[in-house]
Automatic annotation (TrEMBL):
The family this protein is said to belong to: Belongs to the CutA family.
Pfam families, A to Z: CutA1
Sample GO molecular function, one term: copper ion binding
InterPro entries: Ion_tolerance_CutA, N-reg_PII-like_a/b, N-reg_PII/ATP_PRibTrfase_C
GO BP: response to metal ion
Superkingdom, natural source: Bacteria
The name this protein goes by in its record: Putative divalent-cation tolerance protein
Length: 100
């Protein structure tokens, strides 16, 4: 099984640092760091706004990847979730499995 893991980061530097770490450690085959986004969320009873950097990770080990991202993350409660990939181009799925 392969999955896409989605995470938000405080800035591009953090996203790149964590992406490089988890790809080097073979927890993710690839990471796509996306353009900054504007987030509006409730934190400790207050509605907050922040610019954050989302990233998508391709992995065959979503639980281990989520745990590692959370351990490296600067947020107290980082947004890190996964979606299973039910259908994929077979060579791509094999590549993800071989590299994560």
């Amino acid at each position: 099984m392969i999955a896409t893991v989605y995470a938000l980061f405080a800035d591009a530097a953090e996203a790149e640092r964590i992406a490089e770490t988890v790809v080097t450690e073979r927890l993710a085959a690839c990471a796509n760091i996306l353009a900054p986004c504007r987030s509006i969320y409730r934190w400790q009873g207050v509605v907050e706004r922040a610019e954050e950097v989302p990233a998508l990770f391709k992995t065959a080990a979503p639980d281990a990847l989520i745990a590692r991202i959370a351990a490296l993350h600067s947020y107290d409660v980082p947004a890190v979730v996964s979606w299973p990939i039910d259908h994929a181009h077979l060579p791509y799925a094999n590549w993800v499995q071989e590299n994560s």
